[in-house]
Known about the structure:
Radius of gyration: 22 Å
Helix content: 25-40%
Low-confidence stretches: none
CATH class of the domain at 4-249: Alpha Beta
Strand order of the largest sheet: 13-14-12-11-17-18-19
CATH superfamily of the domain at 4-249: ATPase, nucleotide binding domain
Mean pLDDT: 95
CATH topology of the domain at 4-249: Nucleotidyltransferase, domain 5
Distance between the termini: 69 Å
Largest sheet: 7 strands, mixed
Amino acid sequence: MRDHLVAVDIGTGSARAGVFDRNGRLLAKAKHPILMFRPKENHAEHDSEDIWAAACRVVKEALGEAGITPDRIAAIGFDATCSLVARDRDGNQLSVSTTGRDAQDTIVWLDHRAIEEADLLSATGHKVLEFSGGSLSPEMEMPKLMWLKKHLPGSWARAGYFFDLADFLTWKATGSGHRSRCTLTAKWNYLAHENPGWNADFWALAGLEDLKEKGGLPEETVGAGTTMGSLSAKAAEELGLDTGVQVAPGLIDAYAGALGVLGGASGRAELEASVALIGGTSSCVVAFARDAKPGRSLWGPYYEAVLPNHWVVEGGQSATGALLDHMVHMHAAGGEPTAELHGRIIARIDELRAETDGDIAPNLHVLPDFHGNRSPLADPHATGVISGLTLDTSFDGLCRLYWRASVAIALGIRHILETLADHGYRFDTLHVTGGHVNNPLLVELYADVTGCKVVIPQNRDAVLLGTAMTAAVAGGVQPSLFEAGRAMDGGGSERLPDSARAAQYARDYRRFLAMVRHREELRGI
């Protein structure tokens, strides 16, 4: 009986796979690194064949660990970062790199080479931007495509396919060029609530009149909760599965995580009072709503990017886990930011806080925008700020800086949530998933700084779980996404905010906003 599911998650640095049963229980998982190339500042590239090979490897390893045979697998789902994959007309790799190497065919989501193109598109004020917060980030696909056409005309001339990474994976799995509604709506300025979804005027403004031909883009999209078809014979062999396995439409990784932690509330009133925070190298805040609530400096609202008849809105921070790693790496008392070193720092912060019974660095303040501000400022040019540094190079000095950077990350989330509230969203519960659930300091701060109840899911792999939920529907294991969300949700533990610290963090937040203003004043002088 086909009653098990495989979920594949492609992150910034690794491929992961999990095997789930119909109730959402994770039976086994595997992980393997993927390559990243950094040929120039602000350029970051993957090799899509390396990614596919890693995906095949982790699926086989997870299946082996679970002891599940291919004939028990109903469907496979893929989620990925919003990276851009290029292929030529024959489906072969096509360079997106200044090196000219065809193997470097994927622009990583965090690549900021297209910042000028993003600025140009944002300045047009085109109506499609109403559904991306009024502006575009260089992390989106349209600016990246503009950059490619301008700077690599040879690659553009040979192009036959451009894929969001999740769509590339379903193409490799099925041979189908159909694209996910999730990826195109969230990252390609496709308006799923309009017919046609593509806007020719916007393409013309971007100088991409030939994008449909060069990208192999379809007119229609495939929504989550359906199927892209079954595995091809070649893909089935490479993945260690069989051709009876259905393939779910691809998801943006953050949206998979949002479904994984909020799926249990789907179809219920509490869904719109809940928000998902997916924290890792960067952080995403994702919420679902029945009605469109457009607002500046947020991503979305996107119609049916995940759930039927629901809109998705997203905010985020471009560097969170990456920021803490950076603090550790750059400090004289730091070093390679391993999990063990992070743990030592957090343990020492706990000791210092116990000794002082309060803030261990009251005169140290951080703005966390070291890789731009994704939201709520929508300013990729924003930079980080540290105020209050001294000559202290001790380990305790590192701990104080790490503490204040962690507070700043939580204050940034509060800034996003308050902006969402200005546009009509009301949240009282923050569901946290991703790598940040392993950082007790961040979990505490997310509750105390935002004033929200924080829920940590029982299944710590909520991104994989959300992808498995869509696979469950694609494979007929669950009848709908709403029912899959409720049936496969594993619950979680709660942390309530400490009201005794509210005044302290309210003061920190006022300082945080003052620093934002002062940064703009300095830029204007």
